[in-house]
Prior knowledge:
Blueprint: H1 3-15, H2 18-25, H3 29-43, E1 48-50, E2 55-57, H4 59-87, E3 91-97, H5 102-115, E4 119-125, H6 135-139, E5 145-149, H7 155-160, E6 163-165, E7 170-179, H8 192-195, E8 199-202, H9 209-215, E9 227-232, H10 233-236, H11 244-252, E10 258-261, H12 264-267, E11 273-277, E12 283-291, H13 297-313
Parallel strand pairs: 3-4, 3-5, 8-9
Antiparallel strand pairs: 1-2, 5-12, 6-12, 7-10, 7-11, 7-12
Helix pairs in contact: 1-2, 1-3, 1-4, 2-3, 5-13
Amino acid sequence: MELRVVEAFLAVADELHFGRAAVRLGVTQGRVSQMIRSLEREIGAALFVRTSRKVRLTLLGERFRAGALAGYEQLMGTLRECQEAATSVGGLLRIGYLPGAGAYIAPMVAAFQARYADCRVEASSIPLPAALIPYDALASGEWDIVVAWAPSGDPRVVAAAGLTVGSTFISTPRAVVVPQGHPLTALETVSWDDLANYELLNPSNTVRPELRDLWTPRSAPSGRVLRYTADDVMTMGGGRERTVEDLMLLVALGRGLYVSITTLLEHFPYQGLDLVPMRDAGAKHLAPMWTTAAETAAIRAFAELTAEHRRDHAPRFTPSGTSLGTCPGINEASVHRLSNSREPFP
Length: 346
């Protein structure tokens, strides 16, 4: 049974006149009669007594009207509530962020709450390795928005995965973390092809491979396969959540190399490790992400506010060495650094 048929029945039951019901519904009288006959055939009995002078409900029609009206009003009430939830910014917005990105989140949250006082925000950092590949954290519904390193794979795959990526906060060149004395330290810069000769730390074995590939490429641009450790970083830690220092310890112990950012050791000095810049990896882009199907007015409002803040605070230059990735929503205008600010990691 279609909703418009129920609406036609309720209109005739209210007006007790097919012509007035048709005007109320914005259709022809013949169309109303057709829908009522269809409904009576589906039920198996007449719902109206029709004469040349008047229309009245049968006893079965009265019964159907009572039940249909209650159900219709409940449905319309739910529809209105959902429409309000979709268009008004309120309720609770849960924001997770990459460790070290709190300095960027704090002013955004403060500005958001000042603009949308009816929306409460809960923000906290996400432990590793979930923060490195935040797909599961979003898909599980644990967070509404995650601010982390954006996926840099095929935009069509990102969209097919059900993710939306907002405007970039900052972009940071990549580098590989290696133990001191490693053969790669003899090079000024390295490429993905250079890394294909060594094992890289595997961030997760729980995320589906096609999703993991959005953050950790499976092969170099030349087609050479990149090798990742059989165990992921959580398994290497006995199933416990990890910290940045834990990842660096794994590198120092020779368990694998790790692709991070050029400023990692400025924030986390670690004796025995070196960083070698990458020349063909593109930059890492810190950006808000959310599940497209779960998008709400609050999520849209936060994303729009971060885009406004980026436009208002972006410097008039692009730093040398910063290059663009292939992340959807990222273009030349959106790539920037925040001067004299602490970059997130890892």
